[in-house]
UniProtKB/TrEMBL annotation:
It holds the Pfam family DIL. GO terms for molecular function: GTPase binding. InterPro entries: Dilute_dom, Vascular_dev_regulator. This is MYO5B protein. PROSITE patterns: DILUTE (PS51126).
Amino acid sequence: IQQVFKQLFYMINAVALNNLLLRKDVCSWSTGMQLRFNISQLEEWLHGKNLQQSGAPQTLEPLIQAAQLLQLKKKTTEDAEAICSLCTSLTTQQIVKILNLYTPVNEFEERVTVAFIRDIQAHLQERNDAPQLLLDFKHIFPVLFPFNPSSITMDTIHIPASLNLEFLNKV
């Protein structure tokens, strides 16, 4: 059950983040607020079902960081440093793309300046991320089956002659 929810939450993360990276109309402060609220609802549900150890909350980390990126101030060098230290699960390309797509929805917000984006790129220059923009939503985590040893020892097993397994010898 835990592995199923980890996979499901990864798919939610990948599809939502990919939409955020591809659609200019959803890159705004209010979308960041809405995403963060919805993610917190998912995290509360996982906690209520005692699935927080499943790895599912960790799969949502890039989406959480993208939502926080949309909500942070984007003006000064200190803001750039805060963004770089916060967004560790996002690649440099993803951070820059979200900042380029950021669209103010009211007069209190401002567009992200080109100088600020260059400042971010300079801060993230030393990162060795994969040059990846979109997440692979078809990624499948390996399924792990727990090993439960049998209480029956091999020397106590009787193999019926009707199985025609004469080539097996007891050692």
